[in-house]
Design goal:
The complex is a heterodimer of chains A (389) and B (415). Chain A has helices spanning 27-42, 64-71, 87-101, 119-125, 129-134, 142-158, 162-176, 190-195, 223-228, 257-268, 285-294, 303-309, 325-329, 336-348, and strands spanning 9-20, 51-55, 77-80, 106-113, 198-200, 203-204, 213-222, 233-243, 277-279, 362-371, 376-385. Chain A has 389 residues and is α/β, with parallel strands linked by helices. Chain A has two domains: 9-118 and 213-228, Thiolase/Chalcone synthase (Peroxisomal Thiolase, Chain A, domain 1), CATH 3.40.47.10; 126-210 and 235-385, Peroxisomal Thiolase, Chain A, domain 1, CATH 3.40.47.10. In chain A, helix 7 crosses helix 11 (285-294), helix 7 (162-176) crosses helix 12 (303-309) and helix 11 (285-294) packs across helix 12 (303-309). With 415 residues, chain B is of the alpha/beta class. Chain B folds into two domains: 32-160, no CATH class; 170-410, Rossmann fold (3-Layer(aba) Sandwich), CATH 3.40.50.720. Chain B has helices spanning 32-39, 93-96, 157-160, 181-190, 210-214, 229-239, 264-290, 318-338, 368-381, 389-401, 403-410, and strands at 44-48, 54-55, 70-74, 78-87, 101-108, 113-118, 127-134, 140-146, 170-173, 195-200, 219-223, 245-248, 301-307, 344-350, 385-388. In chain B, strands 11-10-9-12-13-14-15 form a seven-stranded parallel sheet, sandwiched between helices. In chain B, helix 6 packs parallel to helix 7 (264-290), helix 7 runs parallel beside helix 8 and helix 10 packs across helix 11. Classes of the chains: A alpha/beta (389), B alpha/beta (415). Chain A binds chain B through residues 118, 120-121, 124-126, 129-130, 132-142, 144-146, 148-150, 152-153, 156, 197-203, 247, 250-251, 373-374, and chain B through 23-24, 26-28, 30-31, 56-58, 63, 82-92, 94-95, 100-105, 107, 113-117, 124-125, 135, 137, 139, 141-142.
Chain lengths: 389, 415
């Protein structure tokens, strides 16, 4: 069956709560700050809000249900999206359908996480049952080690070099210098990338994100509602989502996007050439490179050659992760799965400020999440369109 | 090729001894199947009883057909190393002290991909042989080994952390009179043990082996009577700080059932076999447990020799069987008490041994050399439960299948 369009539904009010490396504040605190900003932008009171979608790793023992009482909300539509890096797009596509069907008027989508000293270690040791049983006991390198294995296999299979991953990291740092909330504030050279201390070979320090605390959010509502409230908005041209794709692959050299990419472009009625700005999920540069391939910007195995030929900065011919991505802005837990989407909304609504790409009217954002054992299980992507600057 | 492990330098007594830490110990119930297999040196994975698909990581339902009928079965160990990494940063205290640490992905011929520890001699693209071993936390873990054995492969630091190899370690064997003591000494010296202390009770009446053993290089005969608390404590005060492996060979055996005129022999059996073990554990255990992270010659294992009738009584040796059950039970509590240190408690179970107290029994009987070999295998492979000889293996299998049926067979009622 042909999928219905998202006509009449828009996404608006991109909000980022500046990240902090370590903070004593809880996930509740970070989510409350993002939600308050969202409601202020839209002129909605918290009692009035009828839809709420939450992504967070550190709410325990609470769930979004507990948050409604904690924050004084009475929503008639409540969602919890525990998909890590795929959370942003998944929250968006669910909220959009609920709004379209009339089950809810406005959905506030928020992702936020705490980062206390030692909370990262605790999160890693009990991240999932398979991780607890079959990956964490083997050197306890966490996702760095698991993705290092994927990178090692990818390099062996396709001949990518560390320098190629470095190009992605270096370009993102250049972008981050234009994004005031980025955790990383100094430039990064390819030499610095190459000579960084090893973390889990082939990864060095600048292949890895900095875990931190923070929150991100946006609103989903009907187009007429956004117009009535005077909000700049983006339309949702298409979305995809997939979990545990290609379970027979012995090691993850491709993500779930491969299964759904044709549908993504077909629904949006465009091809890769129409994308003005791309926000990929960059827990590691190798994963962004995989997305260039799997999202159709180059052929499989040609990601390394692709980054050698493209300029990935804001003013370049292939603007990518314009706010610096998680590699330079920081990874605030599940908010890392929102970072690219929130930036994409800013880009196509002309609100990106220092990171604004000229004439950005069509953006693609992709998500990737949850390394349950040896690979990321969730993949998602969306194409957004807006009026641009 | 693995670098040969050199004898450790003399320790600086002014430095603080490293406090033992453990690798992550938390596991799901299903994953304990790996631990159970590793404890006896088997390589088992879950196989779906409906469609045959081999599963990993351990789970509760088949990922091919959703059947919940999954059985742990011996599985082919061959695989190919398809990715490797060397970890230089870890938030876990145990690994942080041991960085860098190598791990990799092995695609098993049986199907699944396994994330595992890597032996130093394997690299990406190699065909490897998988092994399941107990780590310091006592949990079953996977390690990829080279297919061909190499001379010093046991010296690889990642492999050695999973075994109780006697090389460069100091060993206490508690009873010089046990017929297995001499072959055990020979085996341990051949395996590179640094020194062997041999306990001797009632040294005023020396056994025929005394002269030959006392004359050996790197061997010292020490006074020790496991039925005497002060004797055990005296020896622990003297050598407890340098006992890396303790092998308890002391045992008292008399034939006979439970219906008899008195409890004299039974008391002796419990004194030596059960309470003797407790005395040794109390005197040597805490010191050994504090030294499990003490470098090349760290404390590593506490070995018990038990009759397989600890599992189910032999009525012809009724009181003796009871003392063995008691010793087995004590060893299980010791495992719990040593858990936080990583000190391994190894039980070597044997059928009737070829000695004067089992003289009228028909074969097969376990020769002392075979028993010594089982102990050495348990140490070098890092096993927790070993069944030595055909009788012990057969009995264990029948016990595993149905303990009640075995009891009926042993107590008269089978054919």
């Amino acid at each position: 069956m042909k999928r219905q369009s998202y006509d009449g539904v828009v996404v608006t009010a991109p909000v980022s709560v500046p990240y902090v490396r370590y903070s004593q504040e809880t996930a509740h605190w970070w989510i409350a700050r993002a939600l308050k900003q969202l409601l202020e932008v839209a002129g909605i009171s918290s009692r009035e809000l009828d839809g709420f979608s939450v992504s967070s790793f550190t709410l325990f023992p609470d769930t979004p249900v507990g948050l409604t009482q904690h924050l004084g909300l009475s929503p008639r539509w409540l969602d919890s999206v525990p998909m890590g890096g795929a959370s942003g797009v998944v929250a968006l596509r669910r909220a959009a359908r609920a709004v379209q069907a009339g089950d809810v008027d406005v959905v506030a989508c928020v992702a936020g996480d705490a980062n206390r000293i030692d909370s990262f270690r605790q999160l890693l040791s009990s991240f999932s049952r398979f991780a607890m049983d079959a990956s964490y006991p083997y050197g306890s390198g966490g996702p760095n080690a698991s993705f290092a294995l994927i990178a090692d296999a990818y390099m062996a299979e396709y001949g990518a070099k560390r320098e190629d991953f470095g190009r992605i990291a270096v370009a993102q740092r250049a972008n981050a210098l234009h994004y005031p909330d980025a955790i990383m504030k100094s430039p990064l050279s390819l030499e610095q990338y190459m000579s960084a201390r090893p973390i889990s070979e082939p990864f060095g320090l600048f292949d890895c994100v900095m875990p931190c605390a923070g929150a991100e959010g946006f609103l989903v509502m009907r187009e007429d509602e956004a117009q009535r409230r005077g909000l700049a908005y983006a339309r949702i041209a298409s979305t995809i989502e997939r979990h545990n794709a290609f379970p027979e692959d012995p090691v993850q050299l491709r993500g779930g996007w491969v299964m759904d990419i044709d549908e993504l472009y077909e629904m949006a009625d465009c091809g890769p050439g129409a994308i003005d700005v791309l926000e990929t999920y960059d827990d590691y540069p190798v994963i962004s490179m995989m997305q260039f391939e799997d999202l159709g910007f180059c052929a499989k195995g040609e990601g390394a050659q692709f980054v050698r030929n493209q300029d990935l900065t804001i003013t370049g011919d292939f603007p990518h992760n314009t706010s610096g991505g998680q590699l330079s802005a920081g990874q605030a837990g599940a908010a890392g799965g929102y970072l690219g989407l929130v930036e994409a909304i800013r880009q196509v609504t002309g609100q990106a400020g220092g990171t604004q790409v000229a004439e950005a009217r069509t953006a693609m954002v992709s998500g990737f999440g949850m390394i349950n054992y040896d690979r990321g299980l969730c993949s998602s992507a969306a194409i957004l369109t807006g009026a641009g600057q | 090729m693995t670098d040969k492990l050199l004898p450790p330098k003399k320790k600086n007594p002014q430095l603080r001894q490293r406090v033992p830490t453990l690798p992550p110990a938390m596991r799901s119930r299903a994953a304990l199947g790996l631990t159970a297999a590793a404890a006896r040196g088997a390589f088992c994975l879950q196989h779906c009883e409906e469609c045959g698909a081999v599963q990993y990581p351990p789970r509760d339902a088949c990922s091919s057909c959703l059947s919940v009928d999954l059985a742990w079965r011996e599985t082919a160990r061959e695989g190919k190393l398809i990715a490797e990494t060397r970890i230089h940063a870890s938030p876990d205290p145990y690994y942080r002290e041991r960085l860098p640490w190598r791990s990799g992905l092995v695609q098993l011929e049986a199907g699944p991909t396994v994330l595992c520890h890597l032996h130093g001699d394997v690299g990406r693209g190699d065909t490897v042989r998988m092994d399941l071993k107990l780590d310091k936390a006592g949990q079953g873990v996977m390690i990829a080994l080279p297919v061909e054995r190499t001379p010093d492969m046991a010296d690889d630091p990642q492999l050695r952390s999973l075994t109780a190899d006697p090389k460069h370690r100091r060993v206490l064997i508690t009873d010089i009179r046990s017929p297995m003591t001499r072959p055990l000494i020979d085996g341990l010296l051949a395996a590179g043990a640094a020194h062997i202390f041999v306990g001797e009770s009632e040294s005023w009446r020396r056994g025929s082996d005394h002269e030959a053993i006392a004359a050996l290089d790197k061997v010292s005969v020490m006074q020790l009577d496991v039925s005497d608390a002060s004797s055990v404590q005296r020896l622990a005060a003297e050598i407890g700080g340098k006992t890396d492996i303790l092998i308890n060979t002391a045992r008292f055996v008399r034939p006979g059932g439970v219906l008899g005129a008195d409890t004299v022999f039974a008391r002796e059996e419990f004194e030596t076999n059960a309470l003797g073990l407790m005395r040794l554990a109390q005197a040597f255990g805490p010191g050994m447990a504090s030294r499990t992270a003490d470098g090349v010659n760290s404390a590593v294992a506490f070995v018990n020799l038990l009759s397989v009738h600890a599992l189910s009584a032999d009525p012809h040796y009724g009181a003796f069987s009871a003392s063995q059950s008691a010793a087995l039970s004590i060893s299980q509590t010791l495992r719990a008490e040593f858990r936080s240190s990583g000190l391994r408690v190894i039980n070597v179970f044997t059928g009737p041994t070829d000695d004067e107290w089992h003289q009228p029994l028909p074969p097969p009987k376990v020769p002392p050399k075979a028993l010594a070999k089982s102990v050495l295998t348990a140490l070098s492979e890092g096993l927790e439960d070993v069944f030595c000889g055909d009788v012990a293996k057969d009995l264990e299998e029948r016990w595993r299948k149905d303990a009640k049926v075995l009891e009926r067979e042993l107590t008269g009622g089978g054919t």
